[in-house]
Amino acid sequence: MKDYYDILGVSRSASPEEIKKAFYKLAHKHHPDKGGSPEKFKEINEAYQVLSNKEKRAQYDKFGRVFEGAGAGFQQGFSGFEWQEGGFQSPFGFSGNFDIGDIFSDFFKEATTSTRKRKSAYQNKGRDIEVNLEIDLEEAAFGVRKDISFKTYLACEHCNGKGYEPNSKLKECSNCKGEGVIRELRRTFLGEFTQIIECPKCKARGKIPEKPCKTCGGDGRYYGNKEIKVDIPIGIRDGETIRIRKEGEAGILDGLSGDLYIRIIIRRHSAFERKGDDLHTTLLISFTEAVLGAKKEVKILSPLKDREKEILLKIPSGTESGEIFRIKGKGVKHFDAPGQGDLYVKIKIETPKKVSAQAKELLEKLQKEIE
Q1: Is 102 in contact with 96 (CB distance < 8 Å)?
Q2: 110-114-120 Cα angle (round to 5)
Q3: Is 187 left (phi over 0), alpha (psi -120 to 50) or beta?
Q4: Which are the contacts of 289, defined by CB distance < 8 A and separation ≥ 6?
Q5: Based on C-alpha coordinates, what's the Rg of the chain?
Q6: CB of 248 within 8 A of CB of 127?
Q7: Which residues on adjacent β-strands are paired with residue 231?
Q8: Closest by CA position to 249, among listed 160, 159, 163, 152
Q9: SS (H, E, C) 110-167
Q10: CA distances from 313 to 171, 283, 297, 346 (A)
Q11: Pairing state of beta strands 129-135 and 260-266?
Q12: What pairing do the DSSP bridges indicate for beta strands 273-275 and 278-286?
């Protein structure tokens, strides 16, 4: 059986003031907002619930347990306040016989202030935004700076995102007295209970503008068109995403901005197909070039601003259609490593649809020689 006196660290003859003082000290130490154990905090609260009440304490001293009438609704093992993310919870809300404002007056304000700050930083944070950006293969291979624009919430320049007129300021919310939460008294067949809820007037911020900004209406942001410049890194691949911190949706009332995610889409190229960091292209040659061999100019990928570049590829005699030649180091630069991919040239022998009588005769002679 639990010894409530041991839990609070007081003697059985401790005065109400000593019990209350011990509870304050332990509650501060084990408060979940300060990294304490919710179970320990629950145990401390349970002990104080009994020992701070004259009648319950007398019952506990005499019988080692506390008996409640039907009206109170709680039996031995009352769970008291349980800590869950977002604040104190119990099966029936806060007890009507336990005034949270009196008992937790000092660190409750601290907790609500901490909660309010978290809400300001995270609940008021703007959303992340994802946009698609189409670029050319050359831009992906050599890098480029691009202008992009999109619709989103922007920080109000008139009030610098604060939500109130420059010559004004924030004032304490009259509804919650700056705590960001309000107490609602509820009556049930189990008794009266006080429930803590978010202040609807200030939305848990604890403050409201004296004069809301005439441009944004008090939100600290407005919906409009945003334009930014983004540097596309060399070697980026199709479908990859660039993250730019704090360039997404502006937060409410100077809250944090979300992030911008730019998804890269590379347009199809007329001459090259990219596979990883290698490039593939097709080269047309004539039948005679395939038989006799030749030197052919092959296009290589170059920046859009430069003149189109070519290199000479030696086609050996007897080359067959579908044969592939590799040109080392003429692909795309690696994004995350030194060096670059290769260029693969696939040979396609072009067959003429019309030939002269003389050419036909020569081809027939050649065919007999080959046979």
Answers
A1: no
A2: 145
A3: beta
A4: 296, 315, 319
A5: 39
A6: yes
A7: 145
A8: 152
A9: HHHHHHHHHHHHHHCCCCCEEEEEEECHHHHHHCEEEEEEEEEEEECCCCCCCCECCC
A10: 77, 10, 6, 12
A11: parallel
A12: antiparallel
Residue 24 CB coordination number (10 Å): 16
Smallest CA-to-CA distance from 111 within 209, 41, 43 is with: 41
Nearest of 67, 73, 45, 69 to residue 187 by alpha carbon: 73
Task: Summarize pLDDT for 223-276 with one digit per residue, the tens.
Answer: 999 999 999 999 999 999 999 999 999 998 888 999 999 999 999 999 999 999
Report d(CA 125, CA 153) in Å as an integer.
11
Give the tokens for residue 326: 């590799």
Strand partners, 285: 349
With contact defined as beta carbons under 8 Å apart, do 150 and 226 qualify? yes
Which one of 46-55, 86-95, 164-173, 341-350 scores highest in mean pLDDT? 341-350
Instruction: Say whether 56 sits in a helix, a strand or coil.
Output: helix
Helix boundaries (H) for the chain? 4-8, 16-30, 38-51, 54-63, 100-103, 105-118, 137-142, 287-292, 357-370
Q: Could you give the CA distance from residue 252 to residue 126 in angstroms, rounded to a whole number?
A: 7
Look at residue 336 and give its three-state secondary structure.
coil
Tell whether pTM > 0.70. no
CA dist., res. 65 & res. 77, Å (int): 9
Q: How far apart are CA 21 and CA 50, in angstroms?
A: 15
